[in-house]
Amino acid sequence: MERGLSAEEAQFRQEMREFFTTKVPQEIRDKVAAGEELTKEDLATSHKILNEHGCAVPQWPVEWGGQDWSDLQRYIWLDEMQLANVPAPLPFNANMIGPVIATFGSEEMKKRFLPPTAALDIWWCQGFSEPESGSDLASLRTTAVRDGDEYVVNGQKTWTTLGQHADWIFNLVRTDPNAPKQQQGISMLLIDMKTPGVTVRPIQLIDGGHEVNEVFFENVRVPADQLVGEENRGWDYAKFLLGNERVGVAPTGWIKRKLASAKEYAASVAAGDGTLLDDPLVSARIAELECDLAALELTVLRVAANSHGGKPDPASSILKLRGSELQQDVLELIADIAGPSSLAWSDADGSEVPEWAHNATPVYLNFRKASIYGGSNEVQRGVISSGILGLKG
Amino acid sequence: MDFKFTDEQDSLREAARDAIGRNRTEPVPGDAVHNEKMWQALAELGALGLPFPEDAGGMGAGPIEAMIVAAELGRVGARTAYADTLMAVTLLGQDELAGAAMEGSRLVVPALYEPMRAWSPEPARVTTDGSALEGVREPVPFAAAAPSVVTTARGDDGIAVYAIESPTFDGARLDLAGQSARHVGGDAHLRQALNLGTLVLAGEALGAMESALGLTVEYLKSRKQFGVPLMKFQTLTQRAADMYTSLELARSAIYFGAMSLAEDPEDDLTISRMKVITGKAGKHIGQEAIQLHGGIGMTAEYAVGHYTARLTEIEHSLGDTRYHLGRLAARVKDYGALDLVG
C-alpha cells in the first residue's frame, strides 16, 4: 500500500494538465464550466485536438491509436481532462463502438471504421433503447431480415443522444425471432444515417434542450458487411460495450471540478453580512460531498488496479451508482446556491446574474438522466445483488 | 497509488484471524468486558506494539498493520482496548509504562472524555497546576479491569499529558483529584494518537460492517417467507446492494487513511474524512442489517445486532460524524478542488 504518485506519474499529470489547459480553446472550456449546451463544432473541435495529441482514444489497442498507459495513467488523463472542463471525447466513438469494433470486428471493418472513428470523421450514435425496451433491453423488436447481401431493417429506436449530428448509428436488431432466449437472437449492425428509410425526430427534454431523438427505420437496406462480428452475438457485444470501462464510469474529475466551482459560486452569493460560503449548513454540505467524492475516487483507484482486461465487472456497478448520485448531488447543491438567481433560465442582456446561475436549474434537471441511462441505478443494484452478493431473485 | 497488501500483511491477517478466533467470547449487550486471554494472545502476536519502532519496544510495522488486526477484531465482534492501548502508547512516548502496555503486562488506556461534554481533543475542565490534577474523566474505557490511565490536562503552559499507574475508579468515572499522577510531557503526540486511534476504530468498523453485511446476505438466502427465500424480494436485495456499496466505499477510505498515516501521522484532514465516511457507512449498514433480518436481528443471542451496537459505539468515539464534518467544513475555504493523489 502506498499513497501518492511516483515521480513519473506526477510528471505525466503535469503534462496532461498543461495539454488540456493550453491546447483546448478556453472558450469551449468556459462553456463547459458554465453548463452551456455545446455545439457540434465545439465537440468536434475539442475531440479532434485530443485525437491529434493521442488523447482521444487511449484505451484502444495501440495499433489503432491507443496508448500503452497504465490504469493509473488513464485515470490521470481523465481526471485532468475533467478538471480542465474539457469535453470528453465523443463517448459513442471513443468508449462504445470503437472498442467493440477493435475487439470483435473483422480486420476489414477495423480498417474501414477505426481511423475515422478515432478522428471523429464519423460521428456515431447509439441505437439500443426502444419505446418498449428500456431496462429490458433484450426485448427489443427492431428487426433485420437477411436479403441477399443486405439486411432489411424495420423498427424504432429512442433516446438516441446527439443523433441529430450523427453520420452513423450502431444498432441492435433482432435477427432471429425464434431463438430460445431473447438475448440469443440479437445482432449489431452499423448503419449510415443517410440510408433511405432512416428518419430522425427530436425529443425535447425538461431542461428545454434537444439532446435525444427517436430514430425510425423503414425498410432500410444495410450491406451485410456492416454486421459487427457474428450474427446473433450482438447481446455479448452490447454487454461488453456497457461494461468494459471501469476507469471512466464515475466522472470523479467532473464532480471535483463542480465542487470547487460550487465553493466559488457560494463565495459570490451575498448572505447576511457575508457570503453563502460562510453559512455553516452550506460549508457542511460541501464538506460532506467532498467526503463522498473522496470515497468514490479512492474506490475508482482501488478497483482500477484489479481490473481484468475488458470483461464486464459488477464492480463497475458501484461506480455507476455512486458516480451518478454524486453528479446529481453536486448539481443540486449548485442550484441551491444560485437560489433565487436561478429562477430566470435565460441570460438576457444586462443581467447581473452570471451564466452558471441562469443555467443551474436546467443543468440540474438535465442530469436527472445520469441515474437512468447506461443501465438505471435500480438495474445496477440488481447487478450488485445478484452478481456480487449472489442474491438470485 | 497502491492499494495492495504485501505478503507479510496477508500473513499477519491470517495469524490475527486465527489468534482472535480462538480467544473470542460470545458478545453480550452492555459495557465491554476486558478479555485477558484475548489480550495476551494479541500481545503474543506483537499486535500491541505493532505500529511502534523496534528501538522503542515495538514491532516496527505501521498503521496499515494495526488496521489489519483491528479489522479482524471487528469481524468477530471482539471488543477490546486495542485502539485505546495504541493511543495510550503513542501519548506515553518514552515513558516506561509504554513498554508494559506493548508487552501486555499492563493494560493502559487513555482517559480523554469529560462527563456530559461533547467531544473535543482539548481538555476543558481537567486542569493541572504543574503537579496535581483537577477534574473528572468519564467514561474511562475498560475501567472495570483497573487499567493504568493516560490523560491530558490544561495547565499554564498548554496541554500536558499525565500517566496514572494505579488510579482509583468509581465505576467508569475517574476523579483526578488526589490521584498519584506522573507528568509525561506536552501534547506533541496528541494529534498522532488521535489519528491512529481513529484509524484503528475505523478498521474495526470495517470488519464489523463486513460481518453485518455477510450475515444479512446469508439470511436473505436462507430465510423463507411466503414460501420463498427473502432474496426473491427486490425491495430487500436492492437495499443489500446499497449496503455493499457503502461497505466498499468505506473500505477504500479506511485503506487510504492507513496509507496516509503511514506517510504522515499528522494527516488529520484525511482521518476526519475517513471518520465521516465510516460513520455514515456504519450507521447505514448497521441499521439495515437489523431491519433486513427482522425480529431475529433484535435478539441478543443473534450476532447481527451486536455489530450494530459496536458500530454505534465507534461512531461516538473520538469525535462523531458531526464533529469531523464540522472540522472539515471549517477548512473547505482553504483549497479549491479536492486533491487526494497529489
Automatic annotation (TrEMBL), chain A:
Q: Taking every annotated instance into account, which residue ranges of this chain make up the domain Acyl-CoA dehydrogenase/oxidase C-terminal?
A: 232-388
Positions of the Acyl-CoA dehydrogenase/oxidase N-terminal domain: 7-119
InterPro entries, sorted: Acyl-CoA_Oxase/DH_mid-dom, Acyl-CoA_Oxase/DH_mid-dom_sf, AcylCo_DH-like_C, AcylCo_DH/oxidase_C, AcylCoA_DH/ox_N, AcylCoA_DH/ox_N_sf, AcylCoA_DH/oxidase_NM_dom_sf, Mycobact_Acyl-CoA_DH
Q: Which domain of life is it from?
A: Bacteria
Which cofactors, by name? FAD
Q: Where is the Acyl-CoA oxidase/dehydrogenase middle domain?
A: 125-220
Q: Name one Pfam family in it.
A: Acyl-CoA_dh_1
Q: Which GO terms describe its cellular component?
A: plasma membrane
Q: Name one GO molecular function term.
A: flavin adenine dinucleotide binding
| Matches recorded under SUPFAM superfamilies | Acyl-CoA dehydrogenase C-terminal domain-like (SSF47203), Acyl-CoA dehydrogenase NM domain-like (SSF56645)
Per UniProt, the keywords (alphabetical) are: FAD, Flavoprotein, Oxidoreductase
Family listed:
Belongs to the acyl-CoA dehydrogenase family.
Q: What is this protein called?
A: Acyl-CoA dehydrogenase domain protein
Give the species.
Nostocoides australiense Ben110
